[in-house]
Design a protein that fits this description.
alpha/beta; Rossmann fold; Isoleucyl-tRNA Synthetase, Domain 1; 2 domains; 18 helices; elongated; binds ligand ME8
Length: 506
């Protein structure tokens, strides 16, 4: 049985959700939906990262207690997941009791393994990134990310990260697929080769965090707490539990490149030190850029996803985000590009194909999936291209090539539109020859079969639109497996309505 555990980062609560958060969550959702339709056992995890100095400061600025503030802000993120039709299985909040227990259990494991010691930290800290910054990296009072840094001096627990240089390099060497895309992998490897210093993993200057076991003064550094969320959601510390045993070995972490170092260096080191295996795969995608800068809460240049959904419809936004940018690279967002995509790919290509074929059958060819007769060379080729999607798309999804997934489906859509133009079922309809009527039925059958394949594979991207297309085709079976059986003639169509209206503005 194929098993997949797909995760998003858990999001900080210092601002409302924006298009960047929506981007990762939709990508994870597309993967989760794909694997479920492929018959896999799937767990999809998301949630909110509620501790740390940045969130504590945001609560203070809002004049609220951290608990009241995080309750209110976390609800916004939960609401975001609903508005984008996210099919997650777990929405975890790090303020939950089960998470405190899991983080403390991991800490104790590290302590038992002699991986934690107490000392004093003196150095720079970027609150916006919740990250320690090396002296050499600080320029004009800023971290390389542009976040302001502050000097920190406090008693701290340290994790012996320096012990893990060699084991991490060996691990990535032995597991070339554990980190993608390749450019990011190289970055991480050279960072590790540059030498790892022990990591401060506790704070004493504020209290909004998970208490360090056995200490009344220290709370955990927010990243050790946050990363543990992936374990908590699978039932840790019960490593013999069904969820943990099934899903942890198949975990795929999706995240933005901004937080790659935490996931690809610190996290596997913590896990190995605690006797656990690193995540199976880490995939770092690029940034959505707006007006030339990374979209972010702190920079205030983020696009409001809800406005976009209101204007263009959820499925169009989902498709646009997956199709427009190669997953792994940066992409700049613009409304003009969005309108262009909707009009060309959705209204002209897919919408037009489904609409002209289905309404023709509905109105002029009996309203049922036609009975095919002899298949011509062109018919067989068209059917083979649709059938071939099964393997091509699986290969795409195995490596999280989400844009390629869209491109490959739309190649078949383009083929089908060319096939309609060449076969001209409407001209055949006008012919008085009985043979032409049989030919028309065969052509329309082939087209219905192609539309069924396309709609089934479009489900992860645009769940609602694909469902409507399959409703119109009268199809109840919608898994990938169901495509192994040829389309049944005689099934009544439901009156087709256009699914993707053209957008006239911009
Ligand atoms: O980093 N383009 O939370 P966060 C693409 N709590 N993706 C973007 C983006 C953009 N412009 N802006 C944000 C944290 N993202 C930590 C994570 S995980 C154990 C803890 C997405 O609220 C992207 O996935 O700053 C990025 O990694 C994440 O939001 C950062 O969210």
């Amino acid at each position: 049985m194929t098993v997949r555990c797909i995760t998003t980062p858990i999001y900080y609560l210092n601002g409302a959700p924006h298009l960047g958060h929506v981007y990762t969550t939709i990508a994870a959702d597309v993967l989760a939906r794909y694997w479920r339709l492929a018959g896999a056992q799937v767990k999809f995890l998301t949630g909110t990262d509620e501790h740390g100095q940045k969130v504590a400061q945001a609560a203070e600025a809002a004049g609220e207690t951290p608990q009241a503030f995080t309750d209110r802000m976390s609800a916004l993120f939960l609401d975001m997941t609903k508005k984008i039709n996210s099919s997650h299985d777990v929405f975890l909040r790090t303020t939950e009791k089960r998470h405190h227990e899991a983080a403390q259990a991991l800490w104790k494991k590290l302590e038992e393994a002699d991986q934690i010691y107490e000392s004093t930290y003196a150095g720079w800290y970027a609150v916006r990134d919740e990250a320690y910054v090396d002296e050499a990296e600080v320029k004009d009072g800023k971290a390389p990310s542009g976040a302001p840094v502050e000097w920190m001096e406090e008693s701290s627990y340290f994790f012996r990260l320096s012990d893990w240089e060699r084991p991490l390099l060996d691990y990535y060497e032995a597991n070339p697929k554990a980190l993608a895309p390749i450019g990011r992998r190289n970055e991480v490897l050279s960072f590790i080769k540059g030498g790892l210093r022990d990591l401060s993993i506790s704070r004493t200057k504020f209290t909004w965090g998970v208490a360090v076991p056995g200490s009344s003064q220290h709370v955990m550094y927010v990243w050790i707490d946050a990363l543990t969320n992936y374990l908590t959601a699978l039932g840790y510390p019960d490593i013999e539990g069904e969820d943990f045993k099934t899903f942890w070995p198949e975990s795929i972490h999706l995240l933005g490149k901004d937080i790659l170092r935490f996931h690809a260096v610190y996290w596997p080191a913590f896990l190995m030190a605690a006797g656990l295996t690193p995540p199976k795969r880490i995939f770092a995608h690029g940034w959505l850029v707006h007006d030339g800068e990374k979209m972010s809460k702190s920079l205030g240049n983020a696009v409001d996803p809800f406005q976009l959904i209101e204007t263009y419809g959820l499925d169009a936004v989902r498709y646009f985000l997956m199709r427009e940018v190669v997953f792994g690279q940066d992409g700049s967002y613009s409304e003009a590009a969005m309108v262009q995509r909707i009009n060309s790919d959705l209204a002209n290509d897919l919408g037009n194909l489904a609409q002209r074929v289905l309404s023709f059958i509905y109105k002029n060819a009996g309203g049922k999936i036609p009975q095919p007769h002899e298949f011509s060379e062109e018919d067989r080729e068209m059917l083979a291209r649709a059938a071939h999607l099964h393997d091509t798309l699986r290969d795409d999804m195995e490596v999280q090539a989400l844009q390629a997934y869209c491109v490959h489906i739309w190649e078949v859509v383009a083929d089908a539109n060319r096939y309609v133009d060449a076969q001209k079922p409407w001209s055949l309809k006008k012919s008085a020859e009985a043979e032409d009527q049989l030919r028309m039925a065969t052509v329309l059958y082939v087209l219905c079969e192609v539309i069924r394949h396309v709609a089934v594979y479009v489900q992860p991207l645009m769940p609602e639109a694909a469902a409507k297309m399959l409703d119109q085709l009268g199809q109840e079976e919608r898994t990938f497996e169901s495509l192994q059986e040829p389309l049944k003639p005689g099934t009544a169509l439901v009156e087709p309505v256009p699914l993707f209206p053209r957008i006239e503005k911009v």
